[in-house]
Amino acid sequence: MSSREHAAGSGPLPVLPDRARGGGLEVTGAAGSWFRLADGRLVIDASNLAAPLGHCHPDLVAAVRAASASPAAGGGWNWRGRQRAADDLLEQAFGDEDDWVGAVRFFASAHEANDQALGLAQALTGRGPLVTRERAYHGFPRLAGARRLPAPRCRVSAPCEPGGHCRCLPGDRPATLAGAAAVIIDYSQGGVYPAPAYQDQLAEAARAAGVLWVADEVVTGLGRQGRWLTFQRGRSRPDIVTLGKGLAGGVGPAAAVVLSREVADGLNYQLWQSYSTFRGHPLTTAAISATVRRIARDGLVDRADALGGEFRARLTQIAAAHPSVRRVDGLGLHWTIELRAADAPGRPADPASPAGPTPAERVVEAALDAGVLIATREEASLLIAPPLNVADSEVDLIVRALDRALAVTDAALSQHHVS
């Protein structure tokens, strides 16, 4: 096995309205940003984090077809395609991180990658405790008894004061990190988008405590938030990075653990035994290579960054026009709209009562009627995350559908206040 491949989110599933879950929404085909439904409608897929290039991209179709003639080379076998995928990933996503990046190992799911990364941290440090933050989601590997840091005080929507002198972490963070093996953070779960200062202050505290820092880029990696990796917005660099979701362009499950050079060098003359039948399978690695090459060739990371500015401006306008919107936040092509759940009718508190649609499900249903499929993550939280190569005209359709759909919760909110 080659040196690079050797040593080296996550996130909750989208929630569709009851009508869709009951069989009203059947997908019969797809191309680019669009789904074809069984009733003949075409709708924009505006919240599919697993398909950064949209559906049925010609590069991915060709790559998987060619790789289908490959042997079933498992993780314990050398395979040229796996090495090519490792090189493509490191050269494209980590091309400006040559002094930092050490090695990569592929896995079959983000859950597995996070679990293996945290297990490796425990083995390297000889410690057991793990630390994460409130509202974070990492597939729940090894985290049942993890220590919790509060949600970031420094967020994208509430940056530090001029000069960056705000304190992003609570004063008791040394006690939370003391004796821990690793602290794992992400960049979007729960609709919380931490500012770079949060990452940098946490990295400093982790290093002082001898704790390894794991950056969970499962959801945000490969350009989703306007950088190849969101951690690149800060000054600090993690010890371990995990990737997943759209790593293979959505044509198959894939994930990766990327080690810093320091951590990879620490594995010299040691074995990291994590082999499995389908880790780094030829079909998967062919799709990984095709995905990262196309993202780079088309400049989609820069495009996501530019579209992020457009989304911020237009969604901010929408929020001002709709009283049912509590908060809008996001980066690149990953956005959260939080609704005023406490004031709008939704599911009853009594479990024995009939369950009606939540505020978010009302919006999803109305947006679907307008030709756009978005997702919910909580009863009052919407996720908007179209493909990186979404067309300008499709962005316009998404925003106009949201504007129309939010009028439904405005009306419900108004009626609730009147009654």
Give structural notes.
This protein is of the alpha/beta class and 419 residues long. The chain folds into two domains: 9-48 and 299-418, Aspartate Aminotransferase, domain 1 (Alpha-Beta Complex), CATH 3.90.1150.10; 58-297, Aspartate Aminotransferase, domain 2 (3-Layer(aba) Sandwich), CATH 3.40.640. 36% of the residues lie in helices and 16% in strands. It has twelve helices and 15 strands. The chain has helices at 3-6, 18-24, 58-67, 80-93, 110-125, 173-177, 196-209, 261-265, 282-297, 300-321, 359-369, 392-418, and strands at residues 27-31, 34-37, 42-45, 101-107, 130-133, 147-149, 182-185, 212-216, 240-243, 255-260, 325-331, 334-339, 372-373, 375-378, 381-384. The strands form three sheets. The chain has a seven-stranded mixed β-sheet with strand order 4-10-9-8-7-5-6, with helices on both faces. Strands 1-2-3-13 form a four-stranded mixed β-sheet. A four-stranded antiparallel β-sheet has the order 11-12-15-14, covered by helices on one side. The termini are far apart. The model is unreliable at 5-23 and 342-354 (pLDDT under 50).
Provide a concise account of the structure shown:
The protein has 419 residues and is α/β, with parallel strands linked by helices.
